[in-house]
Amino acid sequence: MNLSLTLLMALPLLGAAVLAALPKANALLAKQIALGSTFLVALVTIAMAVGFERDNINLQYVESHQWIPSFGINYAVGLDGISLVLILMTTLLAPIVVLAGWNESQNGRWSTKTFYILILVLEMMAIGVFAATDVFLFYVFFEAMLVPVYFLIGGYGTGERSAAAVKFLLYSLFGGLLMLASIIGLYVISGTQGGHTFDTQALSQLQMSSTTQNLLFLGFFIAFAIKAPLWPFHTWLPDAADCATPGTSVLLLGVLDKVGTFGMIRYCLTLFPEATKTFTPTIIVLSVISIIYGAFLAIGQKDIKRLIAFTSISHFGFITMGIFAMTSQGHSGATLYMFNHGFSTAALFLVAGWMISRRGSSIISDFGGLQRVTPVMAWAFFFAGMSSLALPGLSSFVSEFLVLVGTYTRYPVAAIIATFGIVLAALYILIPVQRALHGPITAGNENLSDLTLRERVAIAPVVVIIIFLGFYPSPLLKVINPAATHVISQMGFSDPAPTQLGGK
Amino acid sequence: MQINNGLVYLIALPLAGAIILLLAGRRADKWGHIFATLMSASSFAVGLLQFSQMLARPAEERAVEQKLFEWISVGSFQVDAGLLLDQLSICFVLLITGVGTLIHIYSISYMSHDKDRRRFFAYLNLFIAAMLLLVLGNSFLNLYVGWEGVGLASYLLIGFWNQKPAYATASKKAFIMNRVGDMGLSFAIMIAFATLGTVSFAGIKEAAPNASTASLTAIGIMLLVAATGKSAQFPLQAWLGDAMAGPTPVSALIHAATMVTAGVYLITRSNFIFDAAPTAQLLVVIVGAITLLFGAIIGTAKDDIKKALAASTMSQIGYMILGAGLGPVGYAFAIMHLITHGFFKAGMFLGAGSVMHGMDDEVNMRKYGNLRKFMPITFVTFGLGYLAILGVPPFAGFYSKDMIIETAFNAGGIKGILLGSAALLGAGITAFYMTRVMILTFTGSPRWDEKAHPHESPILMWLPMAILAIGSVTSGFLLSRGDTLVHWLEPLFAEHGEHEELLKPIVVTSLALLMVAIGVAIAFVKYSRSEVSDTAPEKVSLLTRIVRRDLLQDDFNEAVFMRTGQALTSTLVKTDEIVIDGAVRGIGSAALSSAGALRTSQTGFVRSYAALILIGAVALVAAIWVVTQ
Amino acid sequence: MNAANYLYVSALLFTIGAVGVVVRRNAIVVFMCVELMLNAANLAFVTFARINGNIDGQIMAFFTMVVAACEVVVGLAIIVTIYRSRRSASVDDASLLKR
């Protein structure tokens, strides 16, 4: 059987269809099927990654079929290094999320099997959104992804889940609407220059006046900035992460939000190179604000889930900064950051979720002395925290440092301010670590149970990946580098040369 | 440069120890301590082997390298995971693994009553591995991994008993202040890459002569920031005193002998940068001079034996930084003091641990007294360390500290006089507070509780102390005889011209000894002649109170950084809630209320709808009529 | 005879119908007024067909008749049902759709 992206997308759908045919009562079988199909998808992705030609900058695994010929819309998919890495992240995270959140669906409005159908559909759409090379197809996946997430938050979350789900949906729809307007604009312009099309490659060749380009750019960028989320479009994230189940939060922050940063690379940069240059200074400023602002807000949170959400805002600031720094280090670093952030946030959210479900509270000060009660869980949380604060030797350090170095060569001031984020990161991680894990064992925490075998099995691959990529990121960097360099050189940028070489 | 594929074992052995012990969990409780000690010892053995091989090679071929794998490679940013063992790093390797192994042995007994002893040894091994990576890395980025790795190990070990909130806070404080320093290292690496295009030591050394002074100065200052964080130098010194929350062997290994001296290593390693950046170098000596006085002054008012020794460590590292800032002529002396200090300070910390062991973990020296009768071995070993730190000939500190003072005077001009005088004054104060520690602890009348039963420690504890004491007696003489260490390190550093001597060496030595004598004398008069109370006197001058509060270092940090940070955080949290999220919710509620207003126009009466349709139609027709007219 | 006169009649009929729809409360009367308006339109269509000399207007008139017939069938059925359940044929009483 030939590996193809269509197959990859069909597998989770197939799993969902099998689940739909199941009787509602058999929850365990539903979980097993979900785990099996996500695992299978992960295996297929790994096989595709192995077959990927690293140095070939052309799209690979390309497929194209006519979909709505009268509008020039195609079902067109293909992979470059960046999308491959993100799809790999998505499909690796999915089985971990299913296994880690084995009992997450029990407090939902609907049945267990519906929960896993939603997850599988989401996985399929996430793959589609990263693989699409037709702007219309991308848009369809981009908007359709909201549906399963909306039901996952609103149907299976905790607290004010309906309100959070609606807030998330409205925010995203607003951005999506702006993007739709821009897409229609592109379509109309393409009609005047050699025929209507939605093909990304063809659209990037369009001639546009600078005003048009700026407006269309903003339509795309705001949609992605909401998704990413970048300051000041971030306020949906803490609410959503607070109310969603930990597994959903992982998919939300780890996968869904990456669509925003991925979109910036794939669409903002390649379709509107001139507008990108116009807006780069503004975006760099917004990114730096995100980094510092997110970190400060994380320090000030009392709820552990909201804290993690704000750390992510800080991290997304780094990613955006790396993308718009327009250096190969910044760009590769940002893509690697997306991958690493997926796993480090997954670790944080999953362990925090286990802590919360055991204690029945997500307020940090309700915990205390966990290191003496549940050593393995405490270690896992500490490890996840260290990964989040980018300790050297863990994967996030490599990407964060690449972003900083890459930014410094072009925007030294931004890089310097952003570096202060690493001190703030130490604060926002160590404060909850101290409150929850250290100190005397406080009332209500005496009898918490340590991680079960299933939970250990779920977190182990995350730990292994984080450590392995911390010391040996080359396998990913070799895939990312050609694609990142290609994007930058298409934009007409090259890395700044060292300023001091060759004489005073 | 020669390739040597054995270097990795230096790090791999203790790292494997740490990983195995951490993963094995309680199953390793029985043998964990032995295993970790063996790992550390075998790393020491590898170090000795490397050293003997190095001795066999001629001076210019002594450095060896090992490339492990390609670590990060993006565009022109190419960093290999590579190790470099040269004359400088071998000194550290032997010190770290040697003293480290002794402290492992000591801890077997010291920690024997702790049910988490295995975890303690895992952390110790982790520390050794990280510290070795720090000194063996062949680029600033590799060094950075070790640099934060030791920070992590230090955090874990300071907070080893983190069930006590104060200890947990101390560990957090250490990590965060270290991170501030680490930020400096990040900056240095970024600037180095942006200006010189490389981050490896060899690459920067090659490129440095062509670089502008401004960028080298910037790199140098940032490296200094890093050094102040890790080595507890002014203004990032405040964490070291609190770090004494960790078990005493940790204080001896990490916060006296090895980790805190990493700043000195960093500056000496980057000698090619500092040599070309006089401003940065000047800042280095200023930081060193301030800290050596700062630490010494704090030390005079400490009643906690470990905190007194910590203040002393800070002060002694100030000497090393001062030496390292004096340029090519000072590097070797800084390293020499670092090695001798490693012996005598680690020895004294272990002695303090031994005292605490015998006194039910009492740390207040005012509750000691006359312990020499009960702990003769501890007294002798501690006493030898004491003589060494004072700089009494022929003990180790005499050779190393004297050379730094002398070099400081020779720096020339006002600068030389100021630095030299500061170093001399520091020597005097050191003599005072160390004598105070000796008197309060080992002589005078006993002031301890009736419950305490002071006793000598077991052999596993006193043996390492004895070995370190031998080191504190002989190391100075051995290293400086025939300028052994200076010549050993010479190939690494730039050549230095002869300085004119401001004062003859003999004069400096005499002055230093005079200052020491004065310090000792004052301490004798103050603490030996009169009875020492077992509580600190309340009615003391403002100055004393300030010194007791560590010269207000924490008050300053709290007022300036912590309070503003907290205020900023809470303001931002409120802003986010009210302004940004408020705007979003505002749009939502605006939509709702306008919908409510419009809803009232829908009456539900068919006839009013019909009338509206009619009016609309008429208006439309009228509009068309007007337009077409 | 001047064709414009037919148009005046048509306009008059339409106005009467429109006023009736707005003013009267009884659903049957409103309904008849609607018919009146439709027939006014029919008259106008036919007149225009005559003026323009083609049959487009007449065709439209047939369409209108068909629609009117359908409307009568559905509308009367609704009115009768409402009358049965509420014992009233006043359109003002049937304002439940407001909520």
UniProtKB/TrEMBL annotation, chain A:
GO CC annotations, alphabetized: membrane
Keyword RNA-binding part of the UniProt annotation: no
GO biological process: ATP synthesis coupled electron transport; electron transport coupled proton transport
NADH:ubiquinone oxidoreductase chain 4 N-terminal domain location: 63-125
GO molecular function term, any single one: NADH dehydrogenase (ubiquinone) activity
Keyword Phosphoprotein carried by entry: no
Transmembrane segments: 30-52, 73-102, 114-131, 136-156, 168-189, 215-233, 279-300, 307-326, 338-356, 376-399, 411-431, 457-474
Pfam families according to UniProt: Oxidored_q5_N (PF01059), Proton_antipo_M (PF00361)
Entry membrane topology: Multi-pass membrane protein
InterPro entries reported in the protein's UniProt record: NADH4_N, NADH_Q_OxRdtase_chainM/4, NADH_UbQ_OxRdtase, ND/Mrp_TM
NADH:quinone oxidoreductase/Mrp antiporter transmembrane domain sequence ranges: 132-424
Subcellular location: Membrane
Keywords on record: Membrane, NAD, Translocase, Transmembrane, Transmembrane helix
Primary residence: membrane
Family the entry assigns: Belongs to the complex I subunit 4 family.
NCBIfam families linked: NDH_I_M, PRK05846.1-4
Protein name in the entry: Unannotated protein
Species this protein is from: freshwater metagenome
TrEMBL record, chain B:
Major location category of this protein: membrane
Stored PANTHER family: NADH-UBIQUINONE OXIDOREDUCTASE CHAIN 5
Sorted UniProt keywords: Membrane, Transmembrane, Transmembrane helix
Localization, UniProt: Membrane
Span of domain NADH-Ubiquinone oxidoreductase (complex I) chain 5 N-terminal: 71-121
InterPro entries per the UniProt record, alphabetical: NADHpl_OxRdtase_5_subgr, ND/Mrp_TM, NU5C-like, Proton_antipo_N
GO MF annotation list: NADH dehydrogenase (ubiquinone) activity; NADH dehydrogenase activity
Protein name per Swiss-Prot or TrEMBL: Unannotated protein
Organism: freshwater metagenome
Membrane-related topology note: Multi-pass membrane protein
Upper taxonomic lineage: unclassified sequences, metagenomes, ecological metagenomes
Entry's transmembrane regions: 6-24, 31-51, 87-108, 120-137, 183-204, 210-229, 250-268, 280-301, 374-396, 416-439, 459-482, 502-525, 609-628
A biological process term (GO) from this entry: electron transport coupled proton transport
Keyword Disulfide bond: no
Residues of the NADH:quinone oxidoreductase/Mrp antiporter transmembrane domain: 138-422
GO CC aspect terms: membrane
Automatic annotation (TrEMBL), chain C:
Main location: membrane
A Pfam short name: Oxidored_q2
Coiled-coil regions listed in the entry: none
GO CC field: NADH dehydrogenase complex
Keywords, sorted A to Z: Membrane, NAD, Translocase, Transmembrane, Transmembrane helix, Transport
Membrane topology field: Multi-pass membrane protein
UniProt GO BP: ATP synthesis coupled electron transport
An example Gene Ontology molecular-function term: oxidoreductase activity, acting on NAD(P)H
Transmembrane spans: 6-23, 28-49, 61-83
Annotated compartments: Membrane
InterPro entries hit by this protein: NADH_UbQ_OxRdtase_chain4L/K, NUOK/Mnh_C1-like
Keyword RNA-binding: no
Record family assignment: Belongs to the complex I subunit 4L family.
Protein name per Swiss-Prot or TrEMBL: Unannotated protein
Species the sequence originates in: freshwater metagenome
